[in-house]
Amino acid sequence: MAQSPDVFVVVPIEMDPTTKAIQALPSSNDPLLTRELEALNNLHRTLKSIPEITNGVPPPPTSVGPKRSAQIERMRQTGNNAFRKQNYAEAVDLYTLAISMALTRPPWEPSQLLRDELQQLYANRAQAHIGINNWPEALADVNASIDLKRVGNPKAHWRKGKCLKEMGRHEEAKEALEFGLEFGSDTELAQMLKEVNATLNKRK
Predict the structure, then answer these.
(1) Could you give the CA distance from residue 19 to residue 22 in angstroms, rounded to a whole number?
(2) Domain of 131: which CATH number?
(3) What gap in Å lies between CA 60 and CA 51, rounded to an integer?
(4) Domain limits for position 78
(5) What are the pLDDT digits (tens) for 93-122?
(6) What superkingdom does the record give (predicted)?
(7) Beta strand spans in the chain (E)
């Protein structure tokens, strides 16, 4: 029988004055209560370990750390500069650092912000990998970019087709390029598809 909402049950718990952890009293033999308190304490420890939290209070759900955003963008631009100088391996390392920084964003920041950052960074790192013929690595990155943003991302679709073509996987390259063109016409995608089709026709 369900209890009335006006009935209050005293839960046998106490707080450790040093660690602030909530724990059940020794007299309690409730395993469910113990598990729930452990989950609560784990959450408390996690929140305390996040640098952005001030005085134990997390920021509003829509808050974005301006320092982190600036650092990620600065690292991305530094990677772009290295790429322009054809220092492709250095560009890969810089984009990797930017990706790592983006992935450490606190969970309360807008998820779309993280998706936008990552799709661009993965696409950039893929292009740097292409510069040094790291085709499998480039393909993995470009797949990640496309997963995050299929529409309005023609460069990523082109790079995927390029990777597959260079790896000799022309049928897959054709499918990837045709898939990219489903989201809008693009001259470079169409040109590469023409080249891939020509190669496939020669094999017949």
Answers:
(1) 9
(2) 1.25.40.10
(3) 15
(4) 69-141
(5) 999 999 999 998 887 788 899 999 999 999
(6) Eukaryota
(7) 13-15, 22-24
